[in-house]
Structure formats: structure tokens, C-alpha cells
Amino acid sequence: MIYGDSNLVVQQTMMTCDAVSDTMIAYRDMYNTLEGTYDGCELAHVSRASNEEADHLANLGSTRAAVPPGVFLEIIHQRSIKENNVTISVKKSPNSDPTADSAVLPDNPANEQAAAGAVEVLAIEPTWMKPLLAYMLEQELPEDTTEARRVMRRSKAFTVINGKLYKRSVFGIFQRCISLEEGHDILLDIHQGTCGHHAGSKTIVAKAFRAGFYWPTALLDAQAIVSKCETCQMFATKPHAPASELKTTPIA
Predict the structure, then answer these.
(1) pTM of the entire structure?
(2) Which residue, among 167, 231, 166, has the nearest Cα to 197 in the 3D structure?
(3) From CA 179, how far away is CA 213, in angstroms rounded?
């Protein structure tokens, strides 16, 4: 018996719910393959109120406490599934070499090296983290005096763990600092994703922070998402106030 805290994942794996995402389909196929090596296997959903073990482990991870005896810790750095490679189509000229197609095939080593190089470029720390990391790791400050004071003041709320920047929340939870693009995607998924319910801006920001993420423009990004959401605008509460100020009518 395998227990999971995501009811959607459990239903998709047990074939009671259709899997639409390519990533989830790949994970489900891997589960079906591994299931054949056992005499029997079944997934069951555990509600949040009954999932005390997961809450205890989450608290250990957020506080960076020592792992208690009897608890096995495994750090997974790579996905269990292999992502589908995309074949790039190139329009060939009449005098082109027929063997030139190998340069765009997914299994081409040169193409894999180019993809790996692209990933390394995208892994550069975002701009808003650079001054904090430079000051906390190498004691480097911006040339501007005002900006340097601002960096020194803000650095008191942050810490560096394994080269990654974390923010200490008021509840003692370490929130991993992410880029603005990643934060926008997280808010979009919380707001109108598979389990999204089109909540307000403050609600989805609070959910993102409770999940252990932080970026400085979270509230502004959430307000922009909610204000541009077509469904939210369609079913929002309509004001009944008049469009213009009321005018008094003189009585003769």
C-alpha cells in the first residue's frame, strides 16, 4: 500500500481519472511498469488532517533539523522519467547535404550538448538575488551608497543554504527564493491550474509562501493575474453604485 497526499495524482495513477499532462502520463506509465514487479500494489489518498507523518517531515526540512533515527532520507537530483525531446525542423535548400538532418535529431550528441548549455544559461541567478548573494557570500556591495545600505538591511532576513538563497519567514519557515518568471508560473498554476479555484491575489500569494517560495513582486504579480483573468472578471461581484455622482433635483 502506497499513501499519497495528492488526490489527483492518486486518481490518475489508479486509472480513476484521466491524465492529460504528458509528464503525468509518463509517471503513470512508469508506475504501471514497476507495479508488475510486485505481487500487488495500490495507492490510497491521505487527507491533510490524517497526514501527520508528512507534516512532521516537512517541519524537519523547513527548520533544517537533524533526521531522527528510523527515518530514511533520499535526495533525488534527477527526474525518474525522461522528457520527450523535440525535433527541430529545418528547411533544406536543393543543394544541401542529405546527412545534415542528423544535426537536428534528438539523439544527436551535439544537440544534447547544446541543450545542456542552454540549461546552464537559464540557471543563472535572477537579478534581484545577485546583490544579496554577492554580499552574503563574498561581502561585495553595490557602488551606490543607498543601494548598499538597502542590501545590508535586507540581508538580515535571508540566509544561504548549499549556495541557494532562502528567506526566513515570520513563522520560522525557510522560503526558497526563486526568479520572477518562476513565481509568476506558480501563481498562475495556483490561481487557474488543475486545482485552482480563482482565489484573490492575497490568497494565492499566501499559498505560494506557505509552500516555501518567495520573490519580492509576488503580490503585484498576483494582482496582475487576477485583474487579467477573464473568468474572474466575468463572475466578479458587480458594483451597484451609480457611474456618476447623484444630482439633486430642485423642487419648485
Answers:
(1) 0.45
(2) 231
(3) 10
